[in-house]
Amino acid sequence: MLALEGVRLLRLPARTACGAAFLRKSLPPSTRSDGSARRQLSSGDAASGWYHQVSHSAPVHLAEDFLVHMQQASGLPWWINIAVSTLSIRTLVTLPLAAYQLIIIGKVEALQVEIAELAKRLRYEVSVRAKERGWTEKQSRFQFRKNLRRLVSQLYIRDNCHPFKASLLVWVQLPLWISLSLALRNLSLEESAVRPDLMTGGALWFADLTSPDSTWLLPLSLGLTNLLIVEIFSLQRSNTSSLQKFVTNAMRGFSLLMIPIATTVPSSMALYWFSSSLVGLCHNLLLRSPALHRLLKVPTQRSDTPYKDLLAAFVRKYCK
Q1: CA distance to 9, 101, 225, 235, per residue, from 98 (Å)
Q2: For the CA atoms of the chain, what is the radius of gyration?
Q3: What is the dihedral of CA 308, 310, 313, 317, to 10 degrees?
Q4: What is the pLDDT of residues 50-70, one digit of tens each?
Q5: Do residues 219 and 259 lie in contact, with contact meaning Cβ atoms separated by under 8 Å?
Q6: pTM beyond 0.70
């Protein structure tokens, strides 16, 4: 039975926790040798405030060393090095976290039927208890919500799928994105020892990676890729709430805002942003694969033809 005021208890069946564990890889620390090509920032660069502290923080310097060491080890041109480094980090770090997020969301979705049944039973028991103890409507709602929160929390603990775990990807991906962006900005400064290599390390229309892309091709590619990611997420939802619509429109606005911002930063940063978004788009499509869902043992039933369904939804929304 459901627990109300300590009178009756609902005994949830114990189940083995089945959360996925992922190997966390850390970037190698800096090796400060005399011949190192890492950045040499002038002590006279006296920009003060939070931005200065963040741009010269340990994670940013670690990201600088990682990029420089990757280029030295591979011997690749800088523009390819940026793309390969982005692919490596997003595949080794954020892709496993995205898969873990998929598992957590799947478990939470699978619990909704059980939660609905518990809510139905709890509502009945609250109504019975309200008549016995003379609770007001406000007191009844309070007891219902309090006990429902407790029961749902027990379900999350039982299945090891608290929704907060699904946000782990954001807490890792955002600092990585900021650190690598600021690292490329630092490496593009005049005080940087690798600036000459970056000035000739580009390709095609962005030959100089230390200057902004005057053609706007990289910024526009970035904006279109981000918009495509947002639209893919919006197409998978049929019935959206007002909050979800607001968030989707906000993400569309942010994607458009990134275009003029990307025209003011070094091409190395714009190239990284575009590479990161492109890899993210590919990972999002990969995570829709039914074979991957079976491999990860995602509990909720998914479509066997996700890509055809996505194309059909796109055609219905934009081509009719």
Answers
A1: 37, 5, 19, 19
A2: 25
A3: -130
A4: 878 888 889 999 999 999 999
A5: yes
A6: yes
Packing angle of the helix pair 267-286, 168-187 (nearest 10 deg): 150
In Å, what is the CA distance from 46 to each residue of 51, 52, 185?
Answer: 12, 8, 16
Angle (deg, nearest 10), helices 217-235 and 242-262: 170
Structure tokens at 137: 């409507």
pLDDT value of position 6: 39
For the stretch 269-292, pLDDT in tens is 999 999 999 999 999 999 988 888
Interatomic CA distance for residues 270 and 220, integer angstroms: 10
Residue 204, phi-psi category: left (phi > 0), alpha (psi -120 to 50), beta (remainder)? left
Burial tier of 266 (Cβ tally within 10 Å: 0-12, 13-18, 19+): buried
Residue 107 has, within 13 A of its CA and on its CB side, a CA count of 24
Confidence of residue 190 (pLDDT cuts 50, 70, 90): confident
Which two three-digit tokens encode residue 72? 């030295």
For residue 14, is pLDDT > 50?
no
Task: Please state, in angstroms and as integers, the Cα–Cα distance from residue 304 to each residue in 37, 120, 264, 301, 312, following that order.
Answer: 50, 32, 44, 9, 14
